[in-house]
Design a protein that fits this description.
By secondary structure, the protein is an alpha/beta fold. It contains 23 helices and 18 strands.
Length: 560
């Protein structure tokens, strides 16, 4: 078994085809052996990184570990110096007597194991993990030591921080090691490692509070002295291309930063407050865009089939709706990834462009320059598009052009802010689009929300009450789970989020109601008869299988 090459082994196991194997070997030849087989299989999209790691572990008969879901022993981590861990992409995860268990993505590389053995004086036992998971774990496990040292160096300097002399500015190394620069970098690194989507830097009279949004909730990261605030905002404004002299008006900017091997696209917004400027940073990871497929959106099999059949329709409008931060753009990008083939012209109009995708023409809205959604759309329709994606239907003019584009034979994808799928149709009519045009052009509507997933380690079971049974639409009490809180989930009781969906497919009887200017209730009743599962039904299914809590059901779908 060990003598079989990994490529042949993958073909034997039916994980890739012979044709795909040849493509990978060809690519390896072109890179003159500088890229490893596993990296190329993942890069070309034939296998996910996790699946390849599991297959390799099976072939080498080494244990595979999922670093995101195991407890890493801090004593073991400290045995291996950070520089060595980064050099070889390894992390020590457990220690038993004189044996150190080390996670690596290359378990047959004896040089690495020898290096660690010499450094630690312990026997090393290799286990296999993915490269990205190891990088993330290195970042997480060694970073907290860095934060304390950075904060100490910042506070020891007091107010004398932001002013760098011209000689300092010339020396890149000196700038990178300046305490305030380190602090700005550390805040973003730690927020990304905590899976945060936003960072809020809020100035108050005596201190500055830094909070991060994790799973939709704001969590305090740290407090720093107000003396540091002005230097920190200056640094962030400088790297994101804002005017550092202007402190009286709001500004926007963006920059990129590499954290644990992933390039982050970071958007920055400043707003003048009473005690200084408040900075909000949105973290978008550009590296992950290729990995998010339609199948990764957390749809139930039934909804997934409905969504897929909607994307097969050659022309019309597909709308994704929901409140801000409910993952609408992610769903749209996943849909684009599915239908953007080399033989079609895909153009998007966005404000702002959230993620840059190869092979797709993306237009940035610029209202000051007169480049509005409507103006951009008009020009795009003269650019021979097959598929048009509009970031958001904000006004009646945009909606009207989009609907007309769909009628003239284009596939249009867009988002709207409404509470459920049925009210989207009513909103379009409300925006001034004629009901018969909505009826003829609309393919379907997807309403979605994000619900938090219970931490598998600490969720506590109990039986549901009568009131909860009513909310879930069931007759008898069943076992459900409540969040508890443990070190694994930062004492929140939840780990990660998943989406719930409500999909209305515009079949003939739905179109008839829309054309007759039907109400939200009438459209919903017909859609339910056609098999649409409402948001409440979707989330109550998740509660019943123990994936989320009744609190989340009430938070996302409660109506009076």
């Amino acid at each position: 078994m060990r003598n079989v090459r990994i490529g042949d082994y993958l073909v034997e196991q039916g994980l890739i085809s012979q044709e795909q194997l040849e493509k990978v070997l060809e690519a390896q030849k072109e890179s003159s052996g500088s890229k490893r087989f596993g990296d190329l299989v993942v890069e070309l999209g034939f296998m996910s990184e996790v699946n390849f790691a599991k297959a390799l572990a099976g072939k080498l008969r080494v244990q595979y570990v999922d670093l995101d879901n195991i407890e890493i022993n801090t004593e073991a981590v400290q045995k291996v110096p950070e520089a060595l861990a980064k050099k070889h992409t390894v992390i020590a995860i457990n220690i038993q007597g004189k044996r150190l268990t080390v996670a690596t993505d290359d378990p047959i590389n004896f040089i690495i194991l020898e290096d660690i053995k010499v450094s630690t004086g312990m026997d090393t036992v290799p286990v296999l993990a993915t490269k990205s998971a190891i990088n993330k774990a290195i970042g997480k496990c060694y970073s907290m030591q860095n934060v304390d040292s950075v904060l100490d160096s910042v506070s020891s300097l007091g107010g004398d921080l932001g002013e760098m002399s011209s000689e300092d500015a010339d020396s890149k190394d000196r700038v990178e090691s300046a305490p305030i620069v380190k602090l700005a970098t550390t805040i973003i690194e730690n927020s990304y490692r905590a899976d945060a989507t936003d960072i809020h830097i809020e100035p108050f009279k005596t201190y500055t509070r830094i909070r991060i949004r994790v799973n939709g909730d704001l969590v305090e990261l740290m407090n720093i002295s107000s003396a540091v605030h002005s230097a920190l905002t200056t640094r962030l404004k400088l790297i994101s291309g804002m005017n550092i002299a202007e402190k009286r008006v709001p500004q926007d900017g963006r920059f990129t930063q590499v954290v644990d091997g992933t390039t982050l696209d970071v958007r920055v917004s400043s707003l003048p407050m009473v005690s200084g400027e408040k900075i909000v940073i949105r973290i978008l990871s550009t590296g992950q865009i290729a990995l998010r497929k339609i199948t990764d959106l957390g749809m139930s099999d039934y909804n997934y089939q409905l969504f897929e059949s909607m994307l097969r329709v050659p022309q019309g409008v597909v709308l994704v709706t929901g409140p801000t931060g409910s993952g609408k753009t992610t769903t749209l990008y996943a849909a684009l990834g599915e239908i953007a083939k080399p033989n079609v012209n895909v153009v998007t109009v966005e404000d702002p462009v959230e993620k840059n995708i190869d092979g797709i023409n993306q237009v940035q809205v610029n209202t000051k320059a007169g480049m509005t959604f409507a103006a951009a759309l008009r020009s795009i329709l003269r650019q021979d598009p097959d598929i048009v994606m509009i970031g958001e239907m904000r006004d009646s003019e945009t909606a009207d052009i989009a609907i007309r584009a769909a009628i003239t034979g284009h596939l249009v994808l867009s988002t709207l802010h409404t509470n459920d799928a049925a009210s989207t149709v009513v909103r379009l009519v409300d925006m001034g689009v004629a009901p018969y045009m909505v009826a003829t052009s609309l393919i379907g509507v997807i309403a979605q929300r994000l619900v938090k997933v219970l931490c598998p380690k600490c969720k506590t079971p109990r039986y549901s009450t009568e009131e909860e049974n009513q909310l879930m639409g069931i007759d008898s009490s069943i076992q459900i789970y409540d969040p508890c809180g443990c070190p694994e989930c930062n004492n929140t009781g939840y780990r990660g989020r998943t989406a719930i969906h409500e999909i209305i497919h515009c079949s003939t009887n739905v179109r008839t109601i829309i054309a007759a200017n039907g109400t939200k209730e009438e459209i919903e009743a017909v859609a339910k008869a056609n098999g649409t599962k409402l948001l409440r039904e979707n989330v109550s299914e998740l509660v019943q299988i123990g994936q989320t809590s009744i609190t989340e059901l009430i938070r996302t779908t409660y109506t009076v």
